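This follows on from our talk about sequence and fold. I would like you to pick a protein and set down its sequence and fold. Go ahead and set the record down below:
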Amino acid sequence: MKSDLDIGDFIIENRASLQEWGDLIAAAIGDKHGDSFKVPATPRVKDPDSARKKQLKKQYANPVVDMTDLVGVRFVVLTSDELGPILETIETSDCWNHKQTRDPNAEARENPATFGYQSHHYELRPTNGAQWCCEVQVRTLLQHTMAELSHDAIYKSPIPVPSQAERLVARSIALMETTDELMCMAMDTIRTAQAPFEAMRKEALVQASSVGGAGADLLDDLFEAYPESITFEGLAEFRDFIRSRSYILERIASRKGRGVFAFPASTLLVYWLAFKHPRSTSRHWPYPGSVRDLEMIYSDLGIGR
């Protein structure tokens, strides 16, 4: 490929193939991590005129190979502790050859007193065939906000940027790092607090598998009504309670489709709560329209309210 090739014409002629390459990358990463994306990961083929301008400014021996952003896609997550799994997918996939061109963690180690642009950058190329490149950026939502600001106001500015403005941006990035650290700590605390509730949800679904394995829709209401009962110790008690009383599943199956019994996984938890704390379960019952169902559960257990 000659250096005098018009890269804009090349993009126009190969737009569909470039878009397909970007879409493949976005889909491969999105299938695994899409739930954590805070901004749509939409691949973008480079504007032909923008590519021509870039070609004028740089000496490319082969612009099709050397221009690394003919297509690009960005993955944005909430906090920095969500970056690792995406980076691992990029670096271990056999769908492409990768090269990391920016690593903010390494840059911070080399220049610990400097606060600048932060984003993981990769160049991804097909393992065979075409040699064009997709530039992938992976960053947090805060990093994305700062990158957009600095890109438009500083990097793309046609006039000199006042040093005071650069200093203010650096201070903002320093504050951003602190904010991200606090957000990560907050999310970790939340996940720790939620862990027994999620474990109970999974266990209830497993125990309800013989009667359809569903019906977890009421669990959030029950968790809110009886939070003190949902612990890892309680999880083991719940499991043993259900396994030792097979008749409970039979009763649920015979009444399935009626009231709370239409939600087997949730109903199993009600049986355990009613057995463990009969008075408080009745007192804090969140479904006044299904008091009769609760009475049937107490009757099945042979206990009074």
